[in-house]
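Exercise 7 asks you to align residues with tokens for two separate proteins.
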Amino acid sequence: MRTYSAVATLDESGEHSQTAIGCAMRKVLVLAYRFPPQGGGGVQRTLKFVKYLPAAGWLPVVHTVSNPDWPLSDPTLLGEVPPFVKVSRSRTFEFERLARTTDGLLAREEDGGARPAGAPKPRTERRGGVARRALKALAGLVQRHALVPDPQIAWVPGALFKSLSLIRREGVSLIYSSSPPNSGQVLALLLKRVTGLPWIADFRDPWTEGIRRKQAYETSRVRGWLEHAFERAVMAHADHVVVTTEKTREQYLAKYPTVPAAKFSVITNGFDPADFALAPSTDGLLDARQFNMTLTGNVEAMFDATPFFAAVKELIDEDDDLRTHLRVNFVGTKRGKYDRFIREHGLESTVQYIGYVPHQTSLRYLAESDALFLCQIPVYESATTKLSGKLFEYLYMRKPILALTIPGLTTDILSRSGLGVAVDPDDRPGIKKALRDLYVRWRDGHGGPPADETYIETFDRSLQTKRLAGLFDRLAERRA
């Protein structure tokens, strides 16, 4: 019998203590464009801070967007927001939604409808097609050069007035902003200049040093200049800057040598033990008779998983046992990029794509798996400054982990935790060996590797939130 299903994690005393909490706690305005019911890894960090800040003496007042253009939705995450926490939402104009609509119009135009094969397009249809393509070109031009630092800049004007109203009405003592999207930091910068309140800027990912940002600057020097100017202003005017890795901190210190080192803190991502309080369930998501390797979350478009799939193909061709028992599960990963390879190499019964699922369901997939794996873009910027949020959930599971990455932060954490092995994503023989070793360990019943429990526990979200609250306390006391 399986023993996993979701358990509620709400604070049962929240409603009764609402008045006392409102009176006793200082309030922080949390600016987060990515927030439930939006889903995906980008919402987890801010959501967990909001969940645990009241226990650390701070009452969040959340300001987010009401009509985001975001493909991932997980309303179940709203259940983790304490009932006494106010969440305000303001509208925006989503240019990305407009761009997709334009793409859809072009696709229908290029499809040709029911016109007989070989028949020329009517003049009106040709004119309409030219107009739509011109519209698409214009939209691309605007997005590259005008929507700086990102399309979500359209949210800032309305959100500015809404935030000022919340600050005045709620008696906010401090501002906390989370990015990406980086427009959230622009909003916080404006609020800082208007109100003078202490402000902590939290960067879940690097800004101008990100891989995709650098690619965008190659096609628009103006965009690069503006984004660097925004970043400099944030570094100059934020009272404190929080990043997720030590390498990112070092990168900012080298880039902005006049900014005091004490202005930066590192608070990594982590896991919430309450997420793993899974009650009995009889419905198994995975076949317990198979050796299940699972990846949760999306695989970056810039990552090439072909060597991994080729290694899987060679393994099952060489070993009938592996062909019978190996199952590779991609939970939440978009289909399409490798469908042809999988089909042409007969991997349909070995590899399965599972669409986006609620967060609790993704954790059940991890719990029912025998080994876990992740993919990281094998470039210096990614390996040294980025840590996948799912890595920390993997650590909590205390199961064997295979990381396809180059040496960097991920490999350091896996080595120190005792749970993982890392292989270069292009090293097909190395991937084969790692997969075979994991399978043999499972087949022979050896269980998971010994883990460094003390080290893993440092990534508890509640402990990380206490560190953040400590920064809040320091800034509030300094202002008082």
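Second protein for Exercise 7:
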Amino acid sequence: MLAAALGAAVTACTVGPSYQRPATAADKRDASFKELGQPAAASDLSPGAASVAWRQARPSDGSLRGRWWELFGDAQLDGLEDRIAVSNQNLKIAAAQYLEAREQVRIAQAGYFPTLTAGPSATHTRESFNQPNTVRGVTKFQFNTFSLQAQATWEPDLWGRVRRTVEQARANAQASAADLASVTLSLQGELALDYFELRGLDTQRQLLESTLASDIDYLRLTQVRFKGGIATDVDVAQAETQYRSIKAQAIDIGVARAELEHAIAILVGVPPSDLALAPSPGAPALPAIPSSLPSALLERRPDIAAAERRAAAANAQIGIAMSAYYPNVTLGASGGLDSGLLGTLFQVSSFFWSAGASAVETLFEGGRRHALTDQARDAYEAQAAAYRQSVLNAFREVEDNLAALRILAEETEAETAAVDSARRSLGLSATRYKGGVASYLEVLTAQTIQLTNERSQAELATRRSVACVQLIKALGGGWTTAQLPAAD
């Protein structure tokens, strides 16, 4: 009867504040990304062109899902990304930490149930002959005791301490799951960044090698003209210097490329000696990335989800601290068999039992409970602020990369025009040189300008790929809070 009454009371009281997700800037109805309405600057080469509003392409959100790297259509990148989940050790660490946090939920749930113990015991006792109230020959000073007993103790969760502990453990486990998703997204993004930068270096090396082939032709032409008395030895020296300089630049690119290849090897969990990526010049076609509304980031960023879950865990800690103000009620029962002779241990007359309850209330502890409750409230405020800051950081990252894509697109247009002009200039200078009306210095200058602009164009293509990957990361890479486990 007493246990039934207390069991009913378990659901009657849970101390501490109910959790409400902290308000953020994304909750404003008029919140939007500034860059989505940023007008594009009119081209300097087209003064009559009207300035139009630039907006990121926004197809269905279905195009941005978990395997977001497939949007780039690069089979080699797809294969490398698939190897991260299997072999990356940092990802395995995060996965193990999530499993550890999930087990903590089961540990906390054990507080709902009573503790049962059982076991036999056997003792032999010799008492003092000189103890008071003893009569020699009558009092038995040595005897055996055989016992088989069980005990049950249960502290009903009258004030919700166990419920709050389970709530806290569940929120921490969900935060750990979001951390795992965040680590996964970070590693996937880092691999894509390294891969596109490596491809950018391959493009630059291809440009340099193409320039080398042209330079060797010019060097031979200059040597022939020198032998014919048309060119000077200065022209020959300049042509040779240009060739050697470009060759050195092509060799130097190998350092950065090797470092990127080694970084990719570590990301996929293999020693650098076990991975070799064949040169693959060229930039990928940039996919259309759906840019979510700011409020959607709260559902799509795993780092934001982790911060929000930790705020929920901190809120539960307040209830745990407040439960210390209330008495601890414990129910206990024990029973079993007890006899001085092993042969009579299992007789009905050897059976015994007891049951009872106790309640303990702390009357004075120097303000410790009050301080712990205040500490829990302060910790919650800190976690709530961290959550709001993570939202603001997400806004900044999206805005940064939207701006980068817009500005780099404009810069690429201008650089493409510059490359076309430089190629036309080199063609004219080469014709003039072969016709004997220009010095090799004019050709050399035109070559240098063309190569500089072509390398800038290649660097811009790499930067646009990087900005695209970073925007995908900033938008959560297709992850949503629906993927958070229940953590029961």
